[in-house]
Write a structure and sequence with these properties.
Order of helices and strands of chain A: EEEHEEEEEEHEEEHHHHHEHEH
Shape of chain A: globular
CATH class of the largest domain in chain A: Alpha Beta
Structural class of chain A: alpha/beta
Distance between the termini of chain A: 44 Å
Number of strands of chain A: 14
Largest interface: A-B, 43 and 43 residues
Largest sheet of chain A: 6 strands, mixed
CATH superfamily of the largest domain in chain A: 2-keto-3-deoxy-galactonokinase, substrate binding domain
Radius of gyration of chain A: 21 Å
Number of helices of chain A: 9
Strand order of the largest sheet of chain A: 3-2-1-4-7-6
Oligomer: homodimer
């Protein structure tokens, strides 16, 4: 069966490219992805990378709209799309910029990211996931946590992103687990909820001891007192605990919507549960195309 | 002129091998080093690596003693030398283990490292630098800070190492500056004392915000508000500030002896000066061979 999408939703991240083929009702017909992330491409490589993924579904007769969020709009991306500043609604198609294309039936619109002056912060892609949350619940007022390489906490009110804060938690975890001396002590799996919860508590209450507690993971395994799965759970817990201590103003006395890959979202939900914070988890694989559909249908609203 | 050492002092680290040729009075005649660190060698490669560095000075008639500290005594090293436990004096030759050698005129003695049960911690090499401080000042009582990849703070009393704590500060700095997204924002030089001091203060007072302040370095450079030299100074300051907050019990109301590479030792001295802590800096290139000379002459003392 041939896929004939009405339009294509695109999330172009640093390391991945994800495409959802959408029908007229904004429903997903199919999904494809590739490892052609922004970081591996030069400016003139974006169209080729996109065509590798979707060329066979482009019609011969008319152009298809591609609505794209993420790093494709960064300075090192396909074409730079200037940030919107908070407070602002998640950007709509009226704020997108057409990417330069050679293919006659490709019409690519890249959405802007969102920036914040104080404290300085930026996002590219998460604003569209926030739009996806608003698409499902237009009256949503509250806090969204978007864990990942760079975890974002965003405060949403009156349909607008009011403020947000980014934590490099995921990237720091990856560097420590895979590139540091801890790679000899940290295992590939971390199914150890008690050690995780304990480390969350330590990370929250003694954040200054972070680099000492890192080395303690190494020393404990050298002295034979700790297995690799426990070490991984503790590393994850220390980092998430430290983040939760600093993100307190976002979650204190609130319910938190978590949008992120299941395993990682579970960790945040588990850590927040120990603090008495209720959470709801949404699947980014649904939220992102829903946000792109919302951007396509509406403007940015008033800021 | 031929070098004819009475004995050879050796510091075998993870990434470097350093040899000092010593005369009968414990003075340095010459120094050599290579990149044959422990991490690049298999068990049977240590003797070859050492001979590459010193073979030409070995006499034909009698064995020369080589006194070695550091990672050569680790489990993955030349031969494992079990740790001494605190409280203990820096280990002397009576605690060393002979490494297996094939060369007839090579007699290699590897000193043990020191471990601590609570909190779990280990050192290999720094105990000998501590011995070097004690060699210069046998009555020394106080705190020694040994910055580096893994910075150690040690409390010395009555000639013994009473307790110590390791911080992965240097390794985390290297990973973030060179491997993370911050590599695009952080320059190669950091001559920016005011930004460094400010970041030390932030790291001390808001340690939980560590991963958020990391991303702020990235966002600030994307939003054009920060040059690469400032970013490097701030990254260094955040990490050292966080460490100083957790190491407070070591430096509060004390004078601190710093043993470390000049530039890094300067940073610690500068940060401690803002806290009203006086420091004295000693050169590891003198302290390490002095510690090996002390280990050679004396036993480990009583613990």
């Amino acid at each position: 069966m041939t896929i004939a999408p009405d339009w294509i939703a695109l999330d172009w991240g640093t390391t991945h490219l994800r495409a959802w083929f959408m029908n007229r009702r904004g429903e997903i017909i199919a999904k494809r992805e590739s490892g052609d992330g922004m970081s591996g491409l030069t400016k003139d490589g974006f169209e080729r990378a996109l065509l590798r993924l979707i060329r066979d579904v482009l019609p011969d007769t008319h152009p298809v709209d591609v609505i794209c969020c993420g790093m494709a709009g960064a300075r090192q991306g396909w074409i730079e799309v200037p940030y919107l500043s908070v407070p602002c609604c998640p950007p709509g198609l009226d704020r997108a910029i057409r990417a330069p294309t050679g293919h006659p039936h490709l019409s690519v619109h890249i959405l802007p990211g969102v920036s914040q002056a104080t404290p300085p912060d930026v996002m590219r892609g998460e604003e569209t996931q926030i739009a996806g949350v608003l698409a499902a619940d237009p009256g949503f007022d509250g806090v969204i946590c978007l864990p990942g390489t760079h975890c974002k906490w965003a405060e949403i009110s009156g349909g607008r992103i009011v403020s947000f804060r980014t934590f490099m938690t995921g990237e720091v975890f990856g560097l420590l687990a895979e590139q540091s001396i801890l790679r000899h002590s940290v295992g590939a799996t971390d199914a150890h909820p008690a050690a995780f919860a304990e480390a969350v508590s330590e990370g929250m209450s003694h954040p200054a001891e972070f680099t000492a507690r890192l080395f303690r993971l190494r020393a404990s395994s050298l002295l034979g007192a700790q297995d690799p799965a426990t070490a991984r759970a503790r590393l994850s817990g220390l980092l998430i605990g430290m983040e939760l201590a600093a993100a307190r103003r976002f979650w204190l006395g609130r319910q938190v919507v978590i949008v992120g890959e299941t395993r990682l979202a579970e960790r945040y939900a588990q850590a927040l549960a120990t603090l008495g914070v209720a959470t709801a988890q949404l699947d980014p694989d649904k939220v992102t195309p829903a946000g792109l559909a919302r951007a396509r249908m509406g403007g940015s609203g008033t800021a």
